[in-house]
Amino acid sequence: EVQLVESGGGLVQPGSSLRLSCAASGFTFDDYAMHWVRQAPGKGLEWVSSISWNGGSIGYADSVKGRFTISRDSPKNSLYLQMNSLRTEDTALYYCARVGLQTDAFDIWGQGTMITVSS
Amino acid sequence: EIVMTQSPATLSVSPGERATLSCRASQSVNSNLAWYQQKPGQAPRLLIYDASIRATGIPARFSGSRSGIEFTLTISSLQSEDFAVYYCQQYNNWSYTFGQGTKLEIK
What we know:
The complex is a heterodimer of chains A (119) and B (107).
Chain A: E1 3-7, E2 10-12, E3 18-25, E4 34-39, E5 45-51, E6 58-60, E7 68-73, E8 78-83, E9 92-99, E10 106-109, E11 113-117
Parallel strand pairs in A: 2-11
Antiparallel strand pairs in A: 1-3, 3-8, 4-5, 4-9, 5-6, 7-8, 9-10, 9-11
Chain B: E1 4-7, E2 10-13, E3 19-25, E4 33-38, E5 45-49, E6 53-54, E7 62-67, E8 70-75, E9 85-91, E10 96-98, E11 102-106
Parallel strand pairs in B: 2-11
Antiparallel strand pairs in B: 1-3, 3-8, 4-5, 4-9, 5-6, 7-8, 9-10, 9-11
């Protein structure tokens, strides 16, 4: 079964750091670009960051550029998001998502991990 | 940044009727447009990609179309499980933005 499972969420104070992980299974991880997408409580979807299949191309939303770093570890079939200088507006459910082989749409999503930034 | 504008924000339709959801891009995204369905407490699910191609396992009552920068998701005969929030998303040239969503509710 194709599956993405996020972990690493929690309650943190403004200015702190957190690292999210996304464990992939059921497919050849190296073949796919991957993304992080977030959803603030009661709000819509916001793309956060992307990484190509080999890590050679990376992109960030302006709202997180310079604070968040995406990476991947092929032997571990894992995607990561290092989040520094967290702000209250980063509070959201963070999803990892896979890009399809025949399209750049996001065809598989995890269930998400919740980040709450609050003092 | 490419802005995606969905309309209406809320759509009330009776089961068995047709629903038409719209999404407009602020500039050309070619056919690099997807539609997602999200139910409460669930992750989004890909319905349509490349403007008009149904994703694997998506029923034929879901269809997508494009006219320039205007995109439409049509659900031909609403089933109870179709009431949810729908998002469009553009993915053009390593740029990704979502619309604000349309809530499809039971009339």
